[in-house]
Amino acid sequence: MSNSCPDIAIHCKGVTKSYTTGNTTVTALRGIDLEVCKGELMMLVGPSGCGKTTLISVIAGILDQDQGECMIFGEDFSRMHPAEKTRFRGDTVGFVFQAFNLIPTLSAAENVAVPLLIKGIKRKEALQKAGELLDRVGLGDRSKSLPSQLSGGQQQRVAIARSMVHDPRLIVCDEPTSALDHHTGHKVMELLQEVAMAENRSMVIVTHDARIFEFAHRIAHMDDGRIVDVVRSQIDM
Predict the structure, then answer these.
(1) Which domain range does residue 33 map to?
(2) What gap in Å lies between CA 197 and CA 149, rounded to an integer?
(3) Which CATH number does the domain housing residue 175 bear?
(4) Radius of gyration for the chain, computed over Cα atoms and rounded to the nearest angstrom
């Protein structure tokens, strides 16, 4: 599939991925070709089980593809040593998991600060930046709350703030608005769009939420492990 990018952030060519469970092999990706531009917000849509989450996991360096090439800002995860991959992913990628993956014993601010603390940022500075991002997602007054004290939508916003706190060049989101009401979802998408359109950054979002399609620059439709169409929205890049 040919997509026109003036400046490429993500380049996937012929990417395949299969899983084996017992005697059964399931093919999740069947030769994915995809380009995402710098400054672009790309959405992946399609039926459940079509390979969307597997694809963004490969793009983010969480899974290794079986075959093909997937370059992220000119770098190939599959050619990196484990420590190099971890370091590059920690510097370059922010991931919003569908299950949130918050640490239950840490406050909202501490959860958001984790990527900075891992990078060696001083705790006071990390918590200050975490608090600023929680303000931006409307949770400034819940910074000391544990995940168990937050609603599903609030936990989702904490996860989104955590994905952005270390200023990654790529943010990958799996259903970032699934637990949010319409108004809050739009507020969060406005923030994500603002981040995505910053210079030399990009964002890939898996979603079933048609209410947020308007925020995409392009929408890639997937089915049965393949990208079957890429359509451009009305947003100017």
Answers:
(1) 8-232
(2) 33
(3) 3.40.50.300
(4) 17
pLDDT digits (tens, 9 = 90+) for 17-38: 999 888 899 999 999 999 999 9
Mean pLDDT of the chain: 90
Q: Is residue 165 part of a domain?
A: yes
Please state which of the ranges 25-29, 35-39, 77-81, 222-226 shows the lowest mean pLDDT.
77-81
Read off the pTM: 0.89
Chain-centroid distance of CA 6 in Å reads 22
- Give the DSSP letter string of 41-90: EEEEE-STTSSHHHHHHHHTTSS--SEEEEEETTEEGGGS-HHHHHHHHH
Q: C-alpha 212: how far from its chain's center? A: 15
pLDDT tens-digit readout, 185-202: 888 888 888 877 776 789
Question: Would you call 234 helix, strand, or coil by DSSP?
Answer: coil
Tally of CB atoms within 10 A around 183: 8
**Of 44, 79, 48, 43, which Cα lies nearest the Cα of 61?**
79
Looking at the 3D structure of the chain, how many domains does it have?
1
Task: State the Cα–Cα distance between residues 3 and 22, nearest whole angstrom.
Answer: 38
